[in-house]
Amino acid sequence: MKIAVISKNDRSGSELAALLRTRSQTGEVHIVASMSQLLAAGASGVSTAAPDVLVLDEPSIESGDLDQVEHLGHVYPLLSFIVLCRQSSQEFLIQAMRVGVREVLPSPVNADTLFSALQRIEDKRSSQAQVNGKVLAFISCKGGSGATFLATNLGYALAALKQKRIALIDLNLQFGDASLFVSDQKPLATILDVAQQIRRLDASFLASSMLNVTPNFSVLAASDDPTHAGDVKPEHIDLLIKLVRRHYDFVLLDVGRSLDAVSIRALDHADMIFPVLQTTLPYIRDGKRMLSVFRSLDYRKDKIHPIVNRHEKSGDIRLGDVKAAFGVNDLRTIPNHYEAAAASVNQGVPILKLAKGSPISKALQEFTQSLAGESTPVSAGWLSRVLQRSR
Ligand SMILES: Nc1ncnc2c1ncn2[C@@H]1O[C@H](COP(=O)(O)OP(=O)(O)OP(=O)(O)O)[C@@H](O)[C@H]1O
Ligand SMILES: [Mg+2]
Fold first, then answer.
1. Which of 6, 179, 288, 295 is least crowded, fewest Cβ atoms below 10 Å from its Cβ?
2. Do domains 3-129 and 134-372 have the same CATH topology?
3. Per-residue pLDDT tens for 29-63?
4. Which CATH class is domain 134-372?
5. What is the Cβ-side half-sphere exposure of residue 29, based on CA atoms within 13 angstroms?
6. How far away, in angstroms, is 348 Cα from ligand 2 center?
7. From ligand 2's centre to the CA of 335, what distance in Å?
8. Which residues 6+ apart lie within 8 Å of 353 measured at CB?
9. Which residues surround ligand 2, an ion (CB under 5 A)?
10. CATH class (in words) of the domain with range 3-129
11. Listed residue (87, 61, 97, 57) closest to 384, CA to CA
12. Closest ligand 1 atom to the C-alpha of 143?
């Protein structure tokens, strides 16, 4: 785990960091000057620096520290807080709970108390990590149908669910461009680097290879060197997807449009496959071919969910005709809205951020709701634990 320590007193900050470093299972420990610094890093998308735990020494209500904690909780939804305070009034505890602090410890803190709190946080994180995430694959029935646009923007929309961690893997190995749809940052590493160093693959190597679009939405980009695409093998895909789904709630795969050993291996892992098409005959023809390939691969019918993108109600081909052609009862549609989609793609800004009122954004939010279902309730145990400490 990455732990950040913030203290207004330099000496206490250094002592706390030194104490934390004596805990054997603790990963990196950093002293951070202020919460504003973390907020600024989060806002600029530099979330490789995002800590897992923030140990906050002696915050005060009067100086607005708890408001900043609340703000940090929005920017880093997966961050856990440990607050140390000399005198914790009832009012302080209630305020702390309200802004999302689950661990309020006495200051100066001893090693046992601090390490037990860290252990509780670690246990909670690993129990969450053991639940496998859902793998959702997007594949274009024909080039330019909008698979990348929908996968990346759905990733951003799902990440707005705060408590969910979202990963997107760009499997368009030769000409992948997914990261550019939602970020203007250059990825530090790509799926090619991961495949070439597959022996190093673990959670931290994976995290450092991904581009963080928001603190809980990361993209493993495709390489911009198409000549080495063949270095990524189906067995790398097995290892990669197994690892990613252990650590993320939703794993989105941008499969592109080629059906080959690598993409089929990825589709094998998918819980749901979304072939993306538009309502013109060439797309429908290729969509039917793709569905027959899926049948020959023995994929269950309820794994395949075609999406009609750029849908116009007044179009020549009616939705009923597409349903009949594909033999499905339900079809998700995403409306056509050229201006908003083009602006989003050109600027590399997710459409939900750039044009919240666009019918595409609304359709993506509905899509998100149908995938996420009910959000997870907060566990009951922490409230009594914090209150007990105030007695
Ligand atoms: N609902 C929409 N309304 C209007 N334009 C859209 C919509 N969805 C996607 N587009 C536009 O279509 C273009 C192509 O989309 P995208 O690159 O996602 O297709 P793709 O299926 O991934 O293509 P490829 O097969 O080349 O990977 C995008 O640049 C975007 O501007
Ligand atoms: Mg694409």
1. 295
2. yes
3. 999 999 999 888 776 655 456 789 999 999 988 88
4. alpha beta
5. 19
6. 14
7. 18
8. 156
9. 148
10. alpha beta
11. 97
12. 25
